[in-house]
Amino acid sequence: HPCILECFPSPTSDLLKENKSLEVTASSRHYVDRLFDLDPQKVLQGVIDMKNAVIGNNKQKANLIVLGAVPRLLYLLQQESSSTELRTECAVVLGSLAMGTENNVKSLLDCHIIPALLQGLLSPDLKFIEACLRCLRTIFISPVTPEDLLYTDATVISHLMALLSRSRYTQEYICQIFSHCCKGPDHQTILFNHGAVQNIAHLLVSTSYKVRMQALKCFSVLAFENPQVSMTLVNVSVDGELLPQIFVKMLQRDKPIEMQLTSAKCLTSMCRAGAIRTDDSCIVLKTLPCLVRMCSKERLLEERVEGAETLAYLIETDVELQRIASITDHLIVMLADYFKYPSSVSAITDIKRLDHDLKHAHELRQAAFKLYASLGANDEDIRKKIIETENMMDRIVNGLSESSIKVRLAAVRCLHSLSRSVQQLRTSFQDHAVWKPLMKVLQNAPNEILIVASSTLCNLLLEFSPSKEPILESGAIELLCSLTQSENLALRVNGIWALMNMAFQAEQKIKSDILRGLSTEQLFQLLSDSDVNVLMKTLGLLRNLLSTRPHIDHIMSTHGKQIMQAVTLILEGEHNIEVKEQTLCILANIADGTTAKELIMTNDDILQKIKYYMSHSNAKLQLAAMFCISNLIWNGEEGSQERQDKLRDMGIVDILHKLSQSSDPNLCDKAKTALQQYLA
Amino acid sequence: MGHPQPLWAAVQAPHQCIVQRDNHLPAAGCTVADTSQDGTALHHRTASRERYLGDDEEPTQLPTSLGVHHTCITSLARGSHGKTPKDAASVRATHPIPAACGIYYFEVKIVSKGRDGYMGIGLSAQGVNMNRLPGWDKHSYGYHGDDGHSFCSSGTGQPYGPTFTTGDVIGCCVNLINNTCFYTKNGHSLGIAFTDLPPNLYPTVGLQTPGEVVDANFGQHPFVFDIEDYMREWRTKIQAQIDRFPIGDREGEWQTMIQKMVSSYLVHHGYCATAEAFARSTDQTVLEELASIKNRQRIQKLVLAGRMGEAIETTQQLYPSLLERNPNLLFALKVRQFIEMVNGTDSEVRCLGGHSPKSQDSYPVSPRSFSSPSMSPSHGMNIHNLATGKGSSTHFSGFESSCSNGVISNKGHQSYCHSKHTATSLNVPELNNINVSRSQQVNSYSSNDVDMETDHYSNGVAETSSNGFLNGSSKHDHEMEECDTEMEVDSSQLRRQLCGGSQAAIERMIHFGRELQAMSEQLRRECGKNTANKKMLKDAFSLLAYSDPWSSPVGNQLDPIQREPVCSVLNSAILETHNLPKQPPLALAMGQASQCLGLMARSGIGSCAFATVEDYLH
């Protein structure tokens, strides 16, 4: 046995304190000693006394753990020779110890309590099983317990499923274990494959509230972002009632808030998975209003966070739901309250409240930003209403520079959503110089923030946006060019997209800066990117760069060779119609240049390709090829006669004649216009 | 209660606001034709109603229509009308919203927005100018369709909700618990619009430009918004508030008080064994001596069993001066005794024989009826006993003729019935027989049974039987629906006969009746006129005026449940002599709570709609 004095070296010289400490440990020691008695009856009594001594007494719990009670209790629990009563009492005491601090749980885990308890579940005795489950439950709901411990042995889950029928306690504890240990799609799939849906569904109508509630929580975690589970749930029925109907009943306003909120989460997951239509009355008239109510000031801060996040998820992609939510119970105004924590009142009057407020302040802010982002995702009127909310832009700007990544991310998302509004880009965004904090966010931010922030930047760089200039001045080109080199696809897309926007109708200097910043190697790298989105945006960038005659000539004079090479490569490669069309458009732009034209005219390979696309089966490509021709043969430009002759020799005129008979009016018109150039 | 002022007075103003009747063509002008309000069937969507109002008040009517039967309003403006607020006109419901309903809700469907859709939906107090949209004047509140603003007694609106137009359904909910109002649009709550609303507001709809048509729904049709769910929430809230009402609990004071209340209740009603056990387990002392409780219990049992003579005797023995000092109580007891004699349950007539042993227990000991003898509002035994009463209808067919002769004089009647029964008394066994078979016959009620019946008649008295048959059939005319179930109960029990069917008993009863009459006269001489006593006696004697007292209009006196008030008065009187409260504190508290709820309803405190004393009596 460990020595008392070693365990509790008296920290102070205060004699009284020392005595007290010794006294406590001495009594604890006595409890542990009794576990080693030779008489099993005395051991049992010892365990029972220990149970009574530790209830609600964290100090006592810590003492017993330090004194080594846990291994002995586990030994007694596992001993086949122990009476069931003793084993049960051991499990109860261990459960009580687990109820204490996180350190207690850690100590229990270190003693390998989980396998011992799982082993105990194989016992035929229900009382013992319940005690083991109760203890397991307490351990698994602790944040220090890795949930993977539940999945180490494949037989455990199926055994737990079987135990679900034993009693309301096994039902409650097992459901609680599942709902805490189900993190992510892997766990969901394991539980789903073990028949969790069928085994737990009927518990939703249990007579015990606790069982109903834990079963409901199970479904909320099983269905979360999981289409497979969600699609299954919608067709399951219990006592002739489909699960969605049961969930709707649990949404009723006289039900406990926890139940309303959790069933709203289930229905939300099912709706997002497509299992329930977004215009179904159970979503529009039940789930959505319920979630809005969860955001109200009357609810607890935790509930408001969860309510807002769930609602944000529910309405994220459906504009009609966004519209309904925006008028329900003054939600937009209601959310403004989320930014008022900790309130000035709480700071003065109540330290405990201040602490509570502070803890939740970040969560509240990020939840509100998320919900604002969803609300404003599609509807211009809603965006306007959001921005008109008191201090909204200031709050976003502040949010962008908060220390919490979660808040920053949500604020950027909110800003991104609002940046889709042309009007807001021109007004509020400019008034509040949101580009400044945004550019700051883009420096050294984690990828998830970078993705949203760079999307927002794309919008801010649109040609009509007044923020464009200052953003350029603050070194955006360099930043965006570096994004195009990212491993992350979304970042590459956003980077090149932003550059494309930036190049649109830009002045020559900017275009040169972009080309220089990007470097031709990088440009070609992007043109051979495996992702079609990146390719398209890169071609778009090229097209924007190659606009207005002087720019075309300038760029072609410096990068002509490489560009022509790239164009040839793409036209020869296996690409979809859009890509080829975009490429032909680039050629058409080049053909519009004064000196740049020659790069095409002297390249027979390219000319053959243009000729080929004029007779392509796709009208879009034909039209794009015709733009090239049209630009090349346009009268009144230097050398137009020679070009016309050369192209006639190539048989272009014959094709034009054929096209002028086309049934497609666009092609027909274009061909006729081209032919007129020859007549003049 | 005077009807709330008909609204149309307000609408008759300069504008052409025509009310369509059930969507038919509008009548010219604004008719105030039938103000008779029938709000039946329209109540079902509101929280609660008259329940809490005292007897002296007429039930409050809910606003269930705009005007009379109309729910559809059209505004027709002429020429340049509709351009200025002056052209507006409002319509108000026929009744204000009573606070006692807790939560009130109505919906308005915009059938057509007309030219500009300047429509307002809301509330207004009586006397508010009806030529304006709701919200613009003092004590007037509205939500307007053109701008979506809310107007709170002011010409300038506050941004509130979305605009509304043709096809939209706008709901208005008044919460009389916290005096707020919120609107709904197409079933979606738009959030609180007004707070601190005054009481007695009328649902109001105002229109301004030509062609605007709206249709109001006060619950005739299902609402778009789930108001039931909202009410559920408030019911739960109120109940939680009651359940969690803070009680200043010092050192278990509250618990002790509750225990005292329970104990005093048990003692009061004389459940001495229970009271004793309860006192023992809760460590209390019972104020009254056990013997005294037992005495009271004995007397109560006698009263409840209908053995009034014994009850009076026992009371006089145990509490010698009690009835002397309370002549009115004694009189009431004796009147009851007379009734019990008619019933055949009083000991004095019962011992005279001729009574089946079964009916001695005519007050069947059901635990329920004993558990609260003084106040059980609905009595499980009611139906049962009524049934027996009716079933025995054929018994006193002899009286039928006397009754039809219209001889009601008490004195004459008594002698008459006496002689009549002398004539028939010989046939008692046979009559019993006939009764049994007849009840079976009535049960099946087929023509075959008539033959069977005549067999029995040959044993009995022809006159009686024919009368009996008539009685039986006429009874059917009146109570077709009831008889089936009643008769089933009947056939398993023996019928009742006047004074248990014994001739001697009837004589005794007549004699007793005379004594009672004398006592009444003496009482009047000594204590002056007493209308209550007079009525009591008259009602009791009236029993003899019917061939079948049990099913007669005064027959309910024979119902064992009527023993309870007498029993309770006697019990209270005994307790008072011991200086104990004449009502148990528990009953007092309950009465107080009910009164309080009534008072809340009258003073406009809406939460009373979601609380009833009965909810807590289970």
What fraction of residues of chain A sit in β-strands? under 5%
Largest sheet of chain B: 7 strands, antiparallel
Radius of gyration of chain B: 33 Å
Please identify the top-level CATH class of one domain in chain A: Mainly Alpha
Strand content of chain B: 5-15%
What name is given to the CATH topology of one domain in chain A?
Leucine-rich Repeat Variant
Question: Could you give a quick summary of the protein structure above?
Answer:
The complex is a heterodimer of chains A (680) and B (618). By secondary structure, chain A is an all-alpha fold. Chain A has 44 helices and 2 strands.
Throw out a few tags for this protein.
heterodimer; A: mainly alpha; Leucine-rich Repeat Variant; 44 helices; 2 strands; B: 618 residues; alpha+beta; six-stranded antiparallel β-sheet; 20 helices; elongated
